[in-house]
Structure formats: structure tokens, C-alpha cells
Amino acid sequence: MPDSPRSGIVPFFRARCPRCGKGNVFVNKVMSFKKFSDTLDECPKCHLKYEPETGFFVGSMYWTYALLVGLTVILSVVLYQIDLFEEAVYIIPLIIIFLLPWVFRYGRLLMLYVVYPIMYKEMFYGKDNEL
Ligand SMILES: [Zn+2]
């Protein structure tokens, strides 16, 4: 499907628009820790409105929670395998605090890539597109 409106996995990891895969989603780079969460109002390329209704991104809390649980399980297994499980109580929170900006942003991106096309089909695909 060459003209599918869904953009795929590479734009997801590059934090690009879920529809065209070209426009940025966030205002700043992830390393600008102060304002890493600022999201653009719409895609600068295809003008997809990123927040279809007020409070849309509240749902990203669930994605962030799931990502943090997954990260904790993976880190626990890795630390157990390298015999550092007793230090895990210090190491895991430090790693999670360091990774928090990425986890936060991917929580929002999962809302845009997974929930948006399902719940706001007409806004995402356009009204005349029968998908
Ligand atoms: Zn776009």
C-alpha cells in the first residue's frame, strides 16, 4: 500500500507525524530537558491537528505507565542476569529518571499512532477516505 496514510515505525521512533511521517510532533529536541514535552498544535507538513480534543494526551499516562512497567521488568531481568539484582533498587530508579523524557514522549506518540487513527478516524484519514 504505497499511498497508505499510516507512516510506519521509522517516523514513530523519529517522533514524526503519524499521518505523513514528515512533520515534527514536538517543538524541541528531547535533550532540551526543560521543554521536552511541548507538542506542536498541528503537523507543519500535512496540518493534522495533533490534539483532536482537549485532554487527548491525558491517555498517554496509560502508555507511559505500560512503558515504565516494561522497562522495569527488562532492567530487573538484566540486573539479575549480571548479579546486580540487590542494587536494582538504586539502579532502576536512576535509569528511569534519566529515560523519563523519552518515555514521556513515546507515551504521547503511542496515543498519536495507536489511539488517534482508531478513535478519530475521520480527522486522521480525512472525511472522503473510506478506510
Ligand atoms: Zn503530517
Q: Please, could you describe this protein's structure?
A:
The protein has one domain (9-125). 49% of the residues lie in helices and 0% in strands. It has four helices and no strands. Helix 2 (60-81) packs antiparallel against helix 3 (88-119). The radius of gyration is 17 Å and the shape is elongated.
Outline of the structure:
With 131 residues, this protein is mainly alpha-helical.
Name some characteristics of this structure.
single chain; 131 residues; mainly alpha; 4 helices; binds zinc ion
Compute the number of strand runs: 0
Beta-strand percent range = under 5%
Distance between the termini: 13 Å
Low-confidence stretches: none
The amount of helix comes to 40-55%
Set out the fold topology.
Blueprint: H1 9-13, H2 60-81, H3 88-119, H4 121-125
